[in-house]
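Hey, resending since the last one bounced:
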Amino acid sequence: MKKIVKYLSLTLPIAALVSCSDLEIEPTDSFISDGFAGVANVQGEVANISNIIAGGNLGNQDGLYALNEVSTDEFIVPTRASDWGDNGRWLSIHRQTWNSELSDIQNSWQALNSVTINATRIINPQSVNTAGGDVTQLKAEARFYRAWAMHWILDMWRQVPYRDVNLPNSAIPVVLTGQVAIDSIVSDLNAAILDLPQVTSGDGISSKSSPTQAAARHLLAKVYLNKHVYLDSSPEAADMQAVVDAVDGIAADGYSLAASGEFFDIFRPSNDVETIWWSPADTGPRTWNTLHYSQTVPVAGQDAEQGGWNGFSTLAEFYDLFEGAPETNYVGDGQEERRGFVPDPATIDDQNLAIGYGFLIGQQFNRDGTPADAREDVGSPPLVFSKEVEQPEFVAPADNSILETAGTRVIKYHPNEEGGDRRRHIVNYRYADAFLMKAEAMFRMGMDVTAMINELRQIRGASDLPAIMEADLLAERGREMYGEVTRRQDLIRFGQYLRAWNLKEAGDPHLEIFPVPNADVLANPNIVQNPGY
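The structure tokens again:
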């Protein structure tokens, strides 16, 4: 079984080893004494980190995903009757009214920091494989994972706890900020690139579930593109050129934009020219979190059906970013490919399960092609998704039927794809993101990227734009990358994260970063609570 080490506090001796479900720690896995003497099973520990990233608050609809998607103009999770209430948790994320006690903030902070400290233990020169074998590539993977986690911590909290493994394990971690933190991340990535495998777009999909040179270059581009945000400065030409160079390195490995008609194929568990790095994370939380209870698929081998959780909906203003009919999204409504479709009822059968792709709005259908109802009881309202969520939560009994079908639903991971809704394949990095990062970097260096953006739009079935300005770049990133944990970062970089949108008022600047959990502020004198909290 897989083994995992989780550190509940970054300032206390490492004495508590926590296991979860089928994960188990063996007493011989690590040499832990007065200091960090390294690990005895580097391969197992690297696999543990992959498990942390794919599971829990880093891989499902909670934590990292919620903080970077629900806090934006992409998603709202209204309280439908008693569903999705959770003491106001989801609405507080959407409205940006959180505090340091929010579980998504606490759990994301702990999980990301557990990645950094576990990776640091692996990178220790004393870490080996007791069974023998070269650990060079494995340590490069650990460097990538540490850089990935540190990047998110810097992005979301602007201060990164860092433990020197040469010090006793009772030593209080230092905190890296600003340029020092950026330099540490970049150093890890540059070192990792030297020893990570060169995996091309044509290599098997299984080879892309672990860090590669292309994945490291993708993260390097993200760091340089957002560097000026972390330093509260203006974009530097040298940093933008570093973005371009990193993306060109990815393209040199054969990665490119998926062909017209293949957009939703990218999210299937098969190889494609765009996927750079994916995690074996459960796709169910990206599928059922948005679908209605009555949108079901048969459970393989069982006399049962799996239905939606009826939560996440998009905002009307986000839906309106796409080309196509403004109030519906049925096949043939003139929509661009990325907006997806609600199936034509005349073509529905048990093979496509009547569930569409992308944005689901208006009347939905049963597997026999008949219009679906919200429930099976007599007099149930039809299952018609409204364009917008007009109120945030259930107040009176009459609100129930309104909120139950309120809001356009969003789905990229279809439950009828290979492996079903539990196929464990979440795309972390893909080439279209890199392509758009390069276009933005070139734009910030004063170049005209109209032709470049129109190249992508033509492939995705959208009409050409006459010229590209900042707002166009942000909108294009929204159309391409929705639901892929980029929207908060993008809105902040373009100065749009604090504006008002549906059921959310304009916010104060301190909301661009999150509060550090109070327990960690109290435990580590090197951490200072972020302003405004």
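The radius of gyration is 23 Å.

Sorry for the duplicate.
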